[in-house]
Amino acid sequence: MMMGSPRLLMRWLLLAALLACSGAAFAARTILVYGDSLSAAYGISKDAGWVSLLGERLKQMHPDYTVVNASISGETSEGGAARIAGALAQARPAIVVLELGANDGLRGWPVERTKANLAAIIRAAKREKARVLLVGMQMPPNYGPEYTEGFRRTYEALAREERVPLVPFLFQGIALDRAMFQDDNLHPNERAQPVLLDNVWRALRPMLGSTSAAARPGR
């Protein structure tokens, strides 16, 4: 019995090491949502916003991920570029969902300026080994065909040049439906939030891998 004790002890130590490695593999990874009022749940309950809904969906389908929302109402791509280093250092994300540029467009900023700022954010995330999902926006037709088309193409070009996945248009499926917007006709209401989530989810889900709730430790 005494001779077998060291072997038994080694087996327990090996098992403990394996369990520790397994636990590390399932440690929650962070998705940083980095946007403006469209992601900050402006004008509605924060729990009803698409980012909060994303957190709930992840709990059910990908419990190895958690969400940090660093979105600020009124944020521009320039403001986002200025604070990205601090946001990355604090959240240490595995994935950054980048939803900025709409306020640039509403102010009529040159599309080259927006593109340069968004590129700076993407590259900062990449330097920290985070993957990036770029969320595209479009401007209403009253800004003129030249500007609106240039603005739309900016996201396509940036995604191609930086080799990051793209949500072509956050408002896909709601843009022409007045019932989906608040009184300002700019910000989606609570009813629209699940649609926004689904638009993002289609591009985000392939980035998450195959981990599901069934793979949670202890099950």
User: What is the ordering of alpha helices and beta strands?
Assistant: HEHEHEHHEHEH
What does the overall shape look like? Answer: globular
**Which residues form runs of ≥5 with pLDDT under 50?**
15-26, 211-219
Total count of strands:
5
Structure summary:
This protein is an alpha/beta fold and 219 residues long.
Note the topology.
Layout lengths: L3 H22 L3 E7 L14 H12 L3 E5 L7 H15 L3 E5 L2 H5 L4 H17 L3 E5 L9 H18 L3 E2 L25 H12 L15
Helix pairs in contact: 2-7, 3-5, 5-6
How would you sum up this structure, described in words?
The protein is of the alpha/beta class and 219 residues long. It has a single domain (28-215), classed as SGNH hydrolase (Rossmann fold, 3-Layer(aba) Sandwich). The chain is 46% helix and 11% strand. It has seven helices and five strands, in the order αβαβαβααβαβα. The protein has helices at 4-25, 50-61, 77-91, 102-106, 111-127, 145-162, 193-204; strands at 29-35, 65-69, 95-99, 131-135, 166-167. A five-stranded parallel beta sheet has the order 2-1-3-4-5, sandwiched between helices. α2 (50-61) packs across α7, α3 (77-91) packs parallel to α5 and α5 (111-127) runs parallel beside α6. The longest helix is centred in the first third of the chain and has 22 residues, at 4-25. The chain is globular, with a radius of gyration of 21 Å.
